[in-house]
Design goal:
This protein is α/β, with parallel strands linked by helices. It contains five helices and 17 strands. A hairpin with a 3-residue loop joins strand 5 and strand 6. Helix 3 packs antiparallel against helix 4.
Length: about 325
């Protein structure tokens, strides 16, 4: 196994393990403390570059040893309570759960401390207009500390069921000559980089008749979208520390997928009858492209890429991420 894959595998296991322990209430972890020691990852990357070129077994052991010691130190520091209160973390009181059904967020309480102790529900939607369906539909999604899911179809153009503990959400529609532009966003920028159990969940329902271009900016969080039955022309993801699980269908001749990430776990599924090409600029990230042939450095294709009438183009750009692309 290559040293870089082993190192970033250990880092992803560390992050996933901490988040899992947080979610089960085993530990309280303050990511703010960890972020202040971010230069340690530059040291690890430097050691990896030096010893990876020499193929030295001793050097590899030194790199892994330094990494384990550094992660142990970060694990210790992350559990210390910050002197200035919360920045990243999961410290929300859970003894109150109030469900409020409403159609907008105009009456949201602006006091973040109050919202941390309360769970709100809201529903946002835009109607489907048949005369506008000839245009492409652009969906802009932005936020952080959120779990996004695609929860089936709707007769409306879009609907969003929001369960939240903090932040204000909005859904707006603008019509242009060539497109219907939808913007779903979290307006509370202070929580853009929340990790752990933020309590914000968004379940989308989309209309299957529309032609979708989906542009997503996610500071920290996760997205799980099954687009197999939807006409998605473009999916663009720009994220920080995120988990992304996306499945695409073959209803359009061409689908473009662009993913730019920092520290992320990215899983993409494409249909076997679609030809697919992957271009990567992934630095030290781990890559697993099952069913693809490597043509050159950073370029991969399926065997049916040239002959297939339907094609999917995937561009991956990430620093400390794990990228997996598989066929179904």
């Amino acid at each position: 196994m290559k040293l870089d894959r082993l190192i970033w595998g250990i880092i992803l296991l560390f992050i996933g393990g901490v988040l899992l322990l947080e979610n089960f209430g085993v530990i309280d972890f303050y990511w703010r403390n960890v972020w202040s020691f971010w230069p340690v990852f530059l040291i690890i990357a430097g050691l990896n570059i030096l010893f990876n070129k020499n193929n030295s077994q001793t050097g590899s052991m030194i790199s892994i040893g330094v990494l384990v010691v550094a992660l142990a130190f970060l694990f210790y520091k992350g559990q210390q309570v910050p002197e200035n209160g919360n920045w990243w973390g999961r410290h929300f009181k859970r003894d109150i759960d109030v469900n409020i059904d409403r159609n907008d967020d105009d009456n949201d309480n602006d006091n973040d401390d109050d919202q941390d102790t309360t769970s709100f529900h809201s529903s946002l939607s835009e109607a489907f207009v048949a005369t506008d369906n000839a245009k492409k539909t652009i969906l802009n999604i932005s936020g952080g500390g959120i779990s996004f899911n695609l929860d089936g179809e709707t007769s409306q153009l879009i609907s969003a069921d929001v369960k939240k503990k903090h932040g204000n959400f909005s859904l707006k529609k603008v019509l242009t000559d060539s497109a219907t532009v939808l913007t779903f966003q979290m307006n509370d920028k202070k929580n853009k980089w929340n990790f752990g159990d933020s309590g914000n969940d968004v379940d989308f329902k989309l209309n299957k008749e529309a032609n979708w271009d989906i542009l997503m900016k996610l500071g920290a969080g996760e997205a799980n979208f099954d687009f197999a039955g939807y006409k998605v022309r473009t999916f663009r993801f720009d994220g920080g520390a995120a988990a992304l699980d996306i499945k695409f269908g073959d209803l359009l001749p061409i689908t473009d997928v662009i993913v730019k990430s920092g520290v992320a776990d990215v899983k993409i599924k494409v249909p076997t009858n679609s030809g697919c090409r992957i271009k990567t600029k992934t630095g030290l990230s781990a890559k697993d492209f099952d069913g693809f042939e490597k043509l050159s450095d950073g370029v991969y294709e399926t065997s049916n890429y040239k002959t297939s009438a339907k094609k999917i183009f995937i561009n991956l750009d990430g620093g400390l991420s794990n990228f997996e692309v598989s066929r179904y």
